[in-house]
Amino acid sequence: MNPSFNKFKSIITNPILFKFFLFQKLSSAFFAGLSIHHFDAESCVVRIKLSWFNQNPFNSMYFAVEAMAAEMCSGMLAFSQVYQRSPKVSMLVEGMEATFFKKATGVILFSCDQGKEIELAIQEAIKTGESSKISCTSIGKNSEGIIVAEFNMHWTFKVKN
Q: What is the pLDDT at residue 158?
């Protein structure tokens, strides 16, 4: 595990520091209303509530907001592993697929539980000096526990020169 993981976790789990982090680094997510519902080394759950700001003309959540939440839940797991790491490691979304099953209304929780796999992919990039790739699944469920969307985010990691 990245030695700075606990420092990053303290930022993410503190509501005030997290809002500041979002505003500074991911302002679109800040304005859309994304928040961390759960975060540890293995999993992350991102919460998003339908509001006037993130809805489409059909009174459901705009797909790009769902994609933001899906990227964030795997991205926070990845970022926690590259945060203040030596050597520095870059991370980038290389691709994405999405399947939508139901209109997203109310509160949606997107979850990803691949923290250990992400950590191994980053360690592989450091060990080999080559880019390493991983596909992470983020599943969005409504308050009844019904899946509304599933995203596959394709991440690539590479040691910075």
A: 96
